[in-house]
Amino acid sequence: MIELKGRKLVLGVTGGVAAYKAAELVRLLGKAGADVHVVLTEGGARFVTAVTFQALSGNRVWTDLWDPRMDNNMAHIDLTRDADAILIAPASADVMAKLTHGLADDLLTTLCLARDCPLLVAPAMNRQMWEHPATQRNVAQLRADGVTLFGPAAGEQACGEVGLGRMLEPEELCEAVIGFFQPRLLAGRRVVMTAGPTFEAIDPVRGITNSSSGKMAYGLARACAQAGAEVVLVSGPVALPVPAGAHRVSVRSALEMHEAVFAALPGADVFIGVAAVADYRPATSAEHKIKKSGAELSITLTPNPDILADVAGLPNPPFCVGFAAESRNLDEYAEGKRKAKKLPLIVGNLVQDGLGGDDNLVVLYDAAGRHPLPKATKPDLARAIVAHLAGLLPQV
Ligand code: CTP
Q1: 31 contacts 60 by C-beta, under 8 angstroms
Q2: Which residue has its alpha carbon closest to ligand 1 atom 4?
Q3: 82 dihedral zone (left: phi>0; alpha: psi -120 to 50; beta)
Q4: Which of 112, 117, 159, 320 is catalytic?
Q5: Ligand 1: nearest atom to the Cα of 323
Q6: Strand residues in 177-251 grouped as ranges (E)
Q7: Distance of alpha carbon 207 from alpha carbon 232, whole angstroms
Q8: What is the rounded distance in angstroms from the CA atom of residue 227 to the CA atom of residue 340?
Q9: Is residue 204 within 8 Å of residue 291, measured between CB atoms?
Q10: Helices 93-101 and 133-144: crossing angle, nearest 10°?
Q11: Does ligand 1 lie within 6 Å of residue 277's CB atom?
Q12: Shortest-distance Cα residue to atom 8 of ligand 1
């Protein structure tokens, strides 16, 4: 994924144990395509050396306000002039206090004062330092000044205490940075989605399921969350991490999924049915493991409710989006499903075009007709679907 391609980031690393995680963060940001320029404070340099950051970023590391390597000797101005953002991770209580008051007594704080790009801050400190009224005043002031805070998280701290103040993990920070640059097309919207396969039990150890990977749904949940939506992901059994900003409700069978969806629906603006819901379930599920007898065994199947059709059939339904995976006649079948289930939008794809893989060929169908999406990676497709559906939502 190169979702930060073309982005220049200045990463400020201040004095805190979490500085060791900043090394991994540089690697992840670089992997996502960003051009990372590290500015190390004196405190930060006590934890990790400039050599590490230089090797990982492939760029010179800056530590000194008076660094003569910049031709015009104005590192404090030039470093951020074409930057897309300054990210400070870890941000100590001290640097946050300085930022609040506009102090500029080292390269990083001077850059922050002289910047014309967004400032993102990932606090990392002992829980009592975080809870201190002085820090909380600074946090409120920084937010009022338009600074974006990522975290902190709660958990066990380097000092052995447990509480709020841990820096977000590098993976979470990288996701937050990617999300920061996305347009907030779904801000204030509540999105309920289904994901993955369902598992219909035959007995306590066996069942009927399918090979849905859940990747499309989880990718879409991530794109919705990054577009500013509150996301509830009602998910069948898949081993995928929950995207940042989404809340997962784990279910197994279609009936459980149906119940969980309707419990999550109040207040929903959008419902997206991505799950590969089993059309049938065993009419009865044996209480104990079925023993082999050598004789023929038949299982009677009974139809499952159609979750998407039931949601779309509500008197005041949310904006409903369906998925249609077909092996042929995509236009006819997808549009047919859209009409039959009364959906304003359906996402169709031909299964031979890579369902379950990392790339998909997708066509959107709505009242205005068919809209083929350019072949792209799943994150890009997910964003294109979000942009299309956001454009169809009634204004609030
Ligand atoms: N869906 C659902 N509940 C079901 C079945 C499907 O919510 N019990 C949703 C899926 O999440 C997807 C869409 O409906 O958004 C798929 O439509 P469907 O007609 O069920 O697709 P298939 O099961 O593939 O239909 P067919 O076997 O007829 O092709």
Answers
A1: no
A2: 306
A3: alpha
A4: 159
A5: 15
A6: 190-195, 200-203, 206-208, 230-235, 246-250
A7: 26
A8: 29
A9: no
A10: 50
A11: yes
A12: 306
Concerning whether 159 is annotated as a catalytic residue, the answer is: yes
pLDDT of residue 360: 53
The best mutation among 234, 277, 345, 351 to test binding of ligand 1, ranked by most ligand atoms within 8 Å of the C-beta, falls on 277
Say yes or no: do domains 8-180 and 190-392 share a fold. yes
Kind and range of the H or E run holding 370: strand 369-372
Residues 233, 220: Cα–Cα separation, whole Å: 10
- Please list, in sequence order, all residues whose beta carbon lies within 8 angstroms of the beta carbon of residue 365, skipping any fewer than 6 positions away: 331, 334, 335, 338, 345, 346, 347, 348, 371
- Give the Å distance between the CA of 309 and the centre of ligand 1: 9
Q: Among 263, 261, 223, which Cα is nearest to 243's?
A: 223
Q: Where is pLDDT greater, at 67 or 325?
A: 325
Classified by CATH at the fold level, domain 190-392 comes out as Rossmann fold (3.40.50)
Task: Verify whether ligand 1 is closer than 6 Å to residue 304 (CB atom).
Answer: yes
CATH number of 8-180: 3.40.50.1950
> What confidence tens digit (pLDDT) does each residue in 92-140 have?
999 999 999 999 999 999 999 999 999 999 999 999 999 999 999 999 9
The confidence score (pLDDT) of residue 250 equals 98
State how far Cα 43 lies from the chain centre: 32
**Residue 73 — very low, low, confident or very high, per pLDDT cuts 50/70/90?**
low
pLDDT tens digit string along 333-347?
999 999 999 999 999
Residue to mutate (ligand 1; options 311, 328, 337, 346; most atoms within 8 A of CB): 337
User: What is the rounded average pLDDT of the residues 81-86?
Assistant: 94
- pTM listed for this prediction: 0.89
Domain-wise residue ranges, the chain: 8-180, 190-392
Burial class of residue 45 (count of CB atoms within 10 Å of its CB; 0-12, 13-18, 19+): middle
235, 252 in Cβ contact below 8 A?
Answer: no
